[in-house]
Amino acid sequence: MPTDAYRISREPFYAPQGNEVALFEAAYAARLPVMLKGPTGCGKSRFVEYMAWKLGRPLVSVACNEDMTASDLVGRYLLEAAGTRWLDGPLTTAARIGAICYLDEVVEARQDTTVIIHPLTDHRRVLPLEKKGEVVEAHADFQLVISYNPGYQSLMKDLKQSTKQRFAAFDFDYPEAGLEADIVARETGVAPETAARLVQVGHAARKLKGHGLDEGISTRLLVYAALLIVRGVVPRDACRMALVRPITDDADVRDTLDHAIDATFP
Amino acid sequence: MTLPRSPAPAAPEFRHPQTQAYWKALDCRFQQVADVFEECLYEALASLSRPGIEAYVEAARTLGKLGRGADPVLAFLEAWPDAAEAVGEASLPALMDLVRSIQKSPNGPALVPLLQTLAPVARRLRGAEPMARYLAVAGDLMARTTGSIHGFHQTQPSPGLPEFFRRAPELLAQLSVGGLAAWTDYGIRNHGRHPDRQREYFSLASADSRAVLQRERHGTLFADVERRLDLSLRALWDEEIPLAPYPAAPPAGDGLAAVTPYLDAQGMRLPDVQDDRNGVRGVDRYRLLVAHMAGHRRWSAPLVADNYSPFQRLAIECFEDCRIDTLLARRYPGLAKPLRALHPVPREGACDPATESCLRHRLAMLSRAMLDPDHAYADPLLQEFTGRFREAMAGGDSSTRAMADIALAYVTRSRRQSDQLARVFFTDTVVDYRDDNRHLWTFIETGDEEESFDQPPPRDEEEADRLPPRHYPEWDYRTQGYRPDWVSVYESLHPSGRASEVDALLAKHAVLARRLKRLLDLLKPQERRRVRFQEDGAELDLDVALRSWIDFRGGTTPDPRINMSHETAGRDLAVLLLLDLSESLNDPVPGTGQTVLELSREAVSLLAWAIGELGDRLAIAGFRSNTRHDVRYQHLKGYSEPWGDPVKARLAATGAAYSTRMGAALRHGAHYLAAQRADRRLLLVLTDGRPSDVDAEDDRLLVEDTRRAVLELEGKGIRTHCISLDGRAEEYVHDIFGGKHSVVDRVERLPERLPMLFLSLTR
Fold it and tell me: What pLDDT digit, counting tens, does each position of B400-409 carry?
């Protein structure tokens, strides 16, 4: 099995917000499936990467989408000149090699697709490959992690109770101001006071959530802005480009955020 | 010895020979003029050039010879030196041209107001070019509103002109000359033929006059930035405070002191308009105001006012304001620059402590020095207290209490006897982004500071039993602009009649109803949805097909359901049926023995029943109008109301009267229809003629307005469709509704056609 392709070689930067690292380690020790909840760009995926590195497990990530079918996860037969050949899907691969399988934004997948993870996430820990007529026993080190953003998706898209109740869950949110500034500074090398001002702008925008903004400015966007600043872009321009323009088309909100930027950066 | 015939002295003697020479040139015998001539001349000598003086005296001479008494001369003599300083001497010929043309017209009495307001007007205009435009606007107003009875000689004076001159300073305080021209033009166009209304308009007494004035104002209007201020407050301060505007310019000119922005338990009060100033945009001035007040809310603690003298309070407010501004700039450094740009820079020594009270001036300098480290003030006391302030602020946020201590020390050290003088030096002491700090004080003893401006308005007995009118604008195609708040729409529930009548009508059309029913069953709703895994379907589902092929090749049973199709589910439609209930519906339809109204009632009953069968949301309302002041909009059926007896009863009671002001009814209907949550919104208008009303002398006006209303509705995502019963409707209905209309020329077939039309529209 080529597990090396899935290994994380360098330590990803992750600044813990609380005791989530210890909790995750405990969950992993018990091989409990884990669900990460929280707004976009607050560090869910980075956390999984970090934990995979810390636990020394390979990580198989799948970004879920609406057109994804069960066979995209499990695997399918491919046509060849001589006939057909079975190809494992990412979930099957992870179960075989004992990786952490991370299904990002799992609600985006259709409900009939999400149901196939059920046998893997209870005491059975097996994955039946219906087409192939095989039942894959999950590797002892296999763990399933899913992420989901309860905020912005429509009412139509929610996880079924039968899915939800198979996971231990973490609630993620944007880190508090000081920590977030540290994260932005460490991730990008921008000056600490600039990072603090970026976070201040981010906080201003997050207060507008539900008042013209669907979602506040994420830590990820703050990092983008900082990256632009590090490359020599004037902070005001960098903020407009990385923080404001992506998240809104509402002229009033845009104007307000522009003002917040002007007010925050001398 | 003979007595002089005139009681006035023929020629007063002026001691100065030059004055005497000019007096001679003036050639004027009014005693009142003689009394002030010398004084006026001295002022003129100080501000006018030599030829300017001569022109001044010459112009005054002309005015004295008009035969209109002493008033024009007096007004001119007093006003012109001031005015010339503001707009230049070269404007005099243009002014005299206007004077001459007024004199030649029947508008002579307007001369005095023109000259009396000349000085304040000129001060607002500042320049020869705006002055020339102002005179041109006045000339235009005169030319277009002076009436003639026989079409040849102008005999009726312009009713609006004197009012216009009287209001000119107030108007120009709020409008640019261009805005004034637009405001005047609107008044001429819409009230040109009605003397009383014209007078009301030009004296700013009518509602539309004030509304147009608002529209033409310069500066940033509060209404335009309110949401942004709300958002700023939320984003930067995490505050949710109501904001309310007050009129920035007091209505009666310079008589009242301007209100200062203030913060109280009810929220923040801000001026309704802010001009750009010192390079700071109007909206940013608003934001500074809001930020300053939010700063007070966050960092200020109220003090007991009774413990301090008024001077001490003034000083405490000054220090506290500076503390807030410093904290603002600390938290949002980007605000420091506009703060400094807006803070006045009082000139050291501008105020003379011997004759004036310099307290405000001293405090303003101190405030400047505390905010601006690069200040150039040399006063050692100011230096010392600026230092103490900085020291207090260095350690953190400090507090209102600490500021009060410094302020008290400052008042003790800087007190002067002259601070008590009544004449207070005000120049450069107003910091206009600061509020009046009323929130900073609590009063133990309730004194006469109590304010209760907001008396509950007296109840209007007449309107107690119905809803107040809603006002809608009307489009004027001649000016290509809206007349604001032009039409008053009164809405009410239509009175009820006997529901059984409508049931009888439906029974009469039972055959038709059965045919309709078949059609309704066939009618497919919209909203397409993909259905996958179909053995027979509209197109191949490539994903599934491939999978089946692989299964087939792999030797397992392939899934034969490799097609997909689309189906439509749910029909999300909201319909408003607007009935024209104007007088013409009472016309009989030849060959039926029924009126148009009766046939419409049958048709509407059938349609309402059909739409009810389909499950679409339908509202029915009727409209009629009796001038723009009285447009009636009567609800017959609400969106969520079922097609039942109450609705039938109302429909049975419909009557027809008055005229068809369609635009207002469309706008009002759209107001409710737009609030319906539906994928599609349809507004059906059933009418028998062109839009018209008794007070619209121009036929095209209401046609164009309706056309405009249809466009507005389209912008709101409402589709409008007109069903016209007028055989000659093709002439105008296409202009109004574009292609979206049907003409039912055989009215007797309406009951059959109307539901069919609806079905084909929504199929």
Answer: 999 999 999 9
pLDDT, average across residues B356-364:
88
Please check whether residue B666 is in contact with residue B720, taking contact to mean a CB–CB distance below 8 angstroms: yes
Mean pLDDT (whole number) for A138-142: 93
Name the token pair of B50.
């030599």
| ipTM associated with this complex | 0.77
What the block records as the tokens of A184 is 């932005």
A146, A105 in Cβ contact below 8 A?
no
Tell me which residue in B236, B283, B554 faces A77 most closely, judged by beta carbons: B554
Are residue A25 and residue A148 in the same domain, yes or no? yes
Q: Compute the distance between CA of residue B161 and CA of residue B413 in angstroms, rounded to an integer.
A: 58
What pLDDT does A200 receive?
A: 93
CA B201, B205, B209 angle in degrees (round to 5)?
45
Mutate one of B229, B232, B547 to test the A interface: name it (highest A CB count within 10 A): B232
Can you tell me the distance from the alpha carbon of B188 to that of B191, in angstroms, rounded to the nearest whole number?
A: 5
Of all residues in chain B, the percent with pLDDT exceeding 90 is 17
- With CA atoms as reference, the chain B residue closest to A252 would be B228
Among A123, A155, A171, the domain-final residue is A171
Nearest CA in chain B to A213: B231
The position carrying tokens 């003599």 is B77
| Together in a domain, A55 and A162 | yes
Chain B hits for A266, Cβ within 8 Å:
333-334, 336
Domain boundary among B191, B216, B241: B216
Range of the domain at A34: 3-171
- CB contact under 8 Å between A257 and B235, yes or no, is yes
End residue of a domain, out of A171, A190, A223 = A171
Assigned domain for B2 exists = no
Query: B55 and B140 share a domain?
Result: yes
Q: Which residues of chain A make contact with B235, given a CB cutoff of 8 A?
A: 204-205, 207-208, 256-257, 260
Number of domains in chain B: 4
Which residues does chain B have within 8 Å of residue A237's beta carbon, measured at their own beta carbons?
A: none
Contacting residues of A for B541, CB less than 8 Å apart:
none
A171-184: per-residue pLDDT in tens? 998 999 999 999 99
- The answer to whether the Cβ–Cβ distance between B551 and A131 falls below 8 Å is yes
Place of tokens 């899907």: A89
CB nearest to B550's CB, from A79, A252, A266: A79
Q: Are residues B265 and B412 in the same domain?
A: yes
Q: Maximum distance among all alpha carbons in chain A?
A: 69
What are the pLDDT digits (tens) for A231-252? 999 999 999 999 999 998 888 8
Which residues from chain A sit within 8 angstroms of residue B230, using beta carbons? 211
Whether residue B490 lies inside any domain: the answer is no
Q: Which two tokens stand for residue B406?
A: 């410094």
User: How many domains, chain A?
Assistant: 2
Q: What is the mean pLDDT of residues B269-295?
A: 89
